[in-house]
DNA sequence: TCCTTTCGAAACGCTACCGTCGCGTATCGA
DNA sequence: TCGATACGCGACGGTAGCGTTTCGAAAGGA
């Protein structure tokens, strides 16, 4: 820790010179936050303009373009600045409660703002490999907790030993996400969706 | 059937006069097909241009704007022209086979072209209520078969009677779609995904 | 203090695309 | 044949947004 800068450098940014007036980190943060705000408000990354970002951040376009060469780099940097939510604590009292809590965490820990941001990343990552990589990073982080949870209860014999933890997690989280975030199956958007999903997969749907 | 036109009128189109040279239905069809082609090739509706549609359809921009007032109307009409796939026949030999067949039909009956179109509709329906309505129409049609199937096997006592058929369908189709179409959980993209999903939900994951 | 760089503001060039118009030609019904 | 409309073509005006430039002022480091 000899002379570390207080803020981590933005990866894809144009490097700042060492002499002269230093760049305002407050401005950098405000710009990245403004990008995420606007992405959350409007539908996608196509829908936001650099001028709007500057206005929201209280800076000028010049200040933005001094840091990032293109709009794509700017958005990528903003997405990169998103941190994964802190790992939530589970009481480990019962499989059912844990799974339900995990699913509800997907719904509550993720704010509506962040939810819309994730949705936009999903959309735009189609034709933006940089964004696609970022998406993978965010998704993998968020998926890990669920997979670990399944593993935990398999070890304790509460879940079948021959399960693929990832498939179980997918079977629970995917329906929840498509219903909650994408708005599919509107009839299923009830407050007890998490409970119903867990019960369904826990006991199975067959009669034998 | 006195003087019915051979083709159904396009709903939101500017009505064609009764005197003078009639509009070419071939051109109309070529235009709508071109829209869907281009939507499938490029990412979204924003990415396609009216000039490109005209070029692909072998017409001129004038011909397009004589039928639809704006690009939005054009896209909406093209989406409206999509027909639901024919209902597939199931052998009804066993629940397991039927469910697996149903899931595999999701993967095979929907061509890659149509898949991309559906994806784009999903994306653009965010800020286009007209498209959102069309999306609901297409999704509901496609979901019905799965829900009916669950109901069929409930009546025959092979599935639990207290199930919500829609929740079961969602629990099966959603993971498949997110994995197959959206590319999530890349480790799960195996040829036997349908079988594994069905087995997991059929027998349940719990040990008691 | 001086030198270097940043900042905000405003204007600019550029490109892409929408939607319109005019024109000569083609095609239908009466 | 005549009248009315559709057709393709090309050009146009208008708008939006990206990225650049200029300029005076401010703010740090040596």
UniProtKB/TrEMBL annotation, chains A, B:
Signal peptide: none
A Pfam family annotated for this UniProt entry: TetR_C_11
UniProt keywords, alphabetically: DNA-binding, Transcription, Transcription regulation
Residues of the DNA-binding region: 49-68
SUPFAM superfamilies: Homeodomain-like, Tetracyclin repressor-like, C-terminal domain
InterPro entries: Homeodomain-like_sf (IPR009057), HTH-type_TetR-like_transc_reg (IPR050109), HTH_TetR (IPR001647), Tet_transcr_reg_TetR-rel_C_sf (IPR036271), TetR_C (IPR011075)
Keyword Electron transport: no
Record region (Disordered): 1-20
Residue ranges constituting the HTH tetR-type domain according to the UniProt record: 25-86
Top-rank taxon: Bacteria
Key word Transcription regulation present: yes
Transmembrane portions of the chain: none
PANTHER family hit by this protein: HTH-TYPE TRANSCRIPTIONAL REGULATOR RUTR, TETR-FAMILY TRANSCRIPTIONAL REGULATOR
Protein name: TetR/AcrR family transcriptional regulator
Lineage: Bacteria, Bacillati, Actinomycetota, Actinomycetes, Micrococcales
């Amino acid at each position: 820790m000899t002379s570390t800068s207080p803020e981590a450098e933005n990866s894809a940014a144009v490097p700042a010179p060492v002499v002269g007036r230093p760049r305002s980190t407050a401005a950098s943060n405000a710009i990245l936050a403004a990008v995420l705000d606007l992405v959350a408000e409007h539908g996608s990354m196509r829908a936001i303009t650099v001028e709007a970002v500057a206005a929201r951040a209280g800076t000028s376009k010049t200040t933005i373009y001094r840091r990032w060469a293109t709009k794509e780099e700017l958005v990528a940097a903003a997405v990169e600045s998103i941190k994964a939510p802190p790992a939530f604590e589970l009481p480990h009292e019962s499989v059912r409660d844990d799974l339900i809590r995990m699913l509800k965490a997907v719904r509550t820990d993720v704010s509506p703002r962040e939810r819309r941001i994730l949705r936009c990343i999903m959309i735009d990552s189609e034709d933006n490999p940089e964004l696609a990589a970022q998406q993978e990073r965010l998704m993998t982080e968020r998926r890990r907790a669920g997979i670990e949870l399944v593993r935990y209860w398999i070890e304790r014999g509460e879940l079948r030993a021959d399960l693929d933890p990832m498939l179980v997690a997918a079977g629970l989280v995917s329906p929840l996400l498509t219903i909650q975030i994408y708005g599919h199956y509107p009839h299923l958007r009830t407050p007890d969706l998490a409970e119903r999903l867990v019960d369904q997969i826990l006991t199975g749907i067959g009669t034998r």
